[in-house]
Specification:
alpha+beta
Amino acid sequence: MIPGYYMNKVHWNFVKADGEVPDNILMDLLDHAYQIVLGDLSKKGDHQIEGYFDYVVPPLEGFWWQQDVDGIDYAHKENFHWISVIRLPDFVTKQDFDWAIAEATRKKKMDFSKVEFLTVEEGLCVQCMHIGSYDDEPATVQMMHEFIEQQGYELDITDKRLHHEIYLSDARKVAPEKLKTVIRHPIKQKDTSNF
């Protein structure tokens, strides 16, 4: 679970699965994450979460980066590293999450130890809805970067502030040309002290 910017405008809560694992294990991890979110972290369970209210589980999201690259190099997508996350509402605490992991492990007799709770404070960003194939994202990203330049900002992708995607479409069910993906990039005010 990764906290990130959700309802309190400071951080978001996410369930995290890591891109360093084989696809079949990743699918199991994501299934485990959804089981935690939809099962044990709901009002149906025995554990009462303070401040709980009914909510719709948000779409899958991903954070992407490349080692030793300034920004993003789309020409070498094979070098991307990533994590997949499912955002959670602010009322879910680390203690609630740990309880849900223990409860899911006990009930389902499965290993949920790879599902993590994380906090991300994303900060100032620009975002754009990309419609189409993931392979066509560089054109949308280029337009985003031109926009931030015109507005007096610059890209601020670092080892802590990453390329972020929110998958509004299920790639297993939607044609590539109709996929909807929110692309979000961290930005900062352009430094004009050198001018």
